[in-house]
């Protein structure tokens, strides 16, 4: 008997459900166009990446970075965790920039995933309660699972239900800490959290601390691009402000903005930080460079907001279902098969958009997700409306 047969059967089932995943060979063309080789002939406008400022293909920026950084001998590998010998000047400089920009302590991790699977398990114990929005990212769900904390969920963006849970938690003498966990921009619906309202709740309930993941907000929102928390004027009130460099910053890595004592505590207790080789110095240097540029990209942010609003309005005007409030614009079609067909039609017309199906989103809410960036213009996008 084949020991692997079970896995082959599971895969066959996924295939039967139209849910089989595979890597694609993608060729990158200039300025945000991609080719799917070898099957598809023409270049398609990439509407599926998370590169919200278009930095990953900004040639002038890359040239400037190459000219300023050079390539020191130590750049390509850090050779150990940060607590052994893996800490380089580049990492310290990046954390310094973050700390200065957010006016609080900053800690950098190898990815947003590392941040989310490490922070909550380090900070919580059996007397902690984690209350999370039901649509938080898989990495935070895994972090909650790895923790010893008790856990509750509230329906997506339902702050009345959240307050009910907070009331109960406040009255429970066995609980000494309550962590409310949410995202600022949700990537499957493109909706944006009301962080001001959540902060108002925190101020009513003394045990509460706020944990907000800004993976899709950093670079895009706020005068200096520091995220939705900056745009809504609540940066200092978010106890644990998490983000990732893989999206608008066009790099890789994760970060936490927090109180200095929390930073020190995590350096001593957080397993993915202690037991994983640090990012290459090259990466930290590029992140530093791109983040610094990002701080001044007010025009790009304003352009992206305008473009997103125009696209959302045009989609609604066609009678389609879309409740996005951001630069991530999903069109909800309902049935898996319809979303698959619509995405194929858009791709055939030169727009690389992808269907999102159950189990990533609830049954009957399959969608095609359009992810915009600041280097796009309306002339490129408008023809897409003929294929929605
Ligand atoms: C992408 C993402 C992450 C993971 O970040 P990586 O740096 O890609 O590992 C975490 N949280 C959210 C909300 C994300 O969208």
From TrEMBL:
Its cofactor is pyridoxal 5'-phosphate. One of its GO terms (molecular function) is 8-amino-7-oxononanoate synthase activity. GO terms for biological process: biotin biosynthetic process. Residues 44-385 form the Aminotransferase class I/classII large domain. SUPFAM superfamilies: PLP-dependent transferases (SSF53383). It comes from the Bacteria. Keywords: Pyridoxal phosphate, Transferase. Pfam families: Aminotran_1_2. PANTHER family: 8-AMINO-7-OXONONANOATE SYNTHASE, CLASS II AMINOTRANSFERASE/8-AMINO-7-OXONONANOATE SYNTHASE. This is 8-amino-7-oxononanoate synthase.
């Amino acid at each position: 008997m084949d020991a692997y047969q079970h896995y082959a059967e599971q895969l066959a089932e996924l295939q039967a459900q139209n849910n089989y995943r595979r890597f694609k060979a993608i060729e990158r063309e200039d300025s945000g166009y991609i080719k799917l080789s070898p099957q598809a002939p023409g270049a398609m406008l990439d509407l599926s990446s998370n590169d919200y400022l278009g930095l990953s293909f900004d040639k002038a920026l890359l040239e400037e970075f190459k000219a300023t950084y050079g390539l020191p001998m130590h750049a390509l590998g850090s050779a150990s965790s940060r607590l052994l010998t893996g800490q380089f000047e580049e990492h310290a400089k990046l954390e310094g920039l973050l700390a200065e920009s957010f006016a609080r302590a900053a800690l950098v991790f190898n990815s947003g995933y590392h941040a989310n699977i490490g922070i909550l398990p380090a900070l919580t114990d059996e007397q902690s309660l984690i209350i999370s929005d039901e649509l938080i990212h898989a990495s935070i769900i895994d972090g909650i699972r790895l923790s010893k904390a008790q856990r509750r969920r509230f329906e997506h963006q339902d702050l009345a239900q959240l307050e009910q849970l907070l009331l109960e938690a406040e009255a429970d003498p066995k609980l000494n800490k309550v962590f409310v966990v949410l995202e600022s921009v949700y990537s499957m619906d493109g909706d944006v959290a009301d962080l001001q309202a959540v902060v108002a709740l925190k101020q009513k309930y003394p045990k509460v601390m706020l944990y907000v993941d800004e993976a899709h907000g950093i670079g895009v929102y706020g005068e200096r691009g520091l995220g939705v928390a900056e745009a809504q004027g609540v940066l200092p009130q978010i106890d644990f402000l998490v983000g990732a460099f893989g999206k608008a910053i066009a790099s890789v890595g994760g970060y936490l903005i927090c109180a200095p004592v929390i930073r020190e505590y995590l350096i001593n207790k957080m397993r993915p930080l202690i037991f994983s080789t640090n990012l290459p110095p090259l990466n930290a240097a590029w992140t530093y460079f791109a983040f610094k540029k990002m701080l001044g990209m007010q025009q790009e942010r304003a352009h992206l907001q305008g473009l997103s609003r125009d696209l959302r309005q045009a989609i609604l005007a066609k009678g389609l279902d879309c409740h996005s409030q951001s630069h991530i614009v999903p069109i909800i079609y309902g049935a898996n098969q319809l979303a698959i067909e619509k995405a194929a039609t858009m791709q055939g017309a030169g727009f690389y958009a992808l269907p999102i199906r159950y189990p990533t989103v609830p049954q009957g809410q399959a969608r095609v997700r359009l992810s915009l960036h600041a280097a796009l213009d309306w002339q490129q996008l408008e023809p897409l409306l003929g294929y929605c």
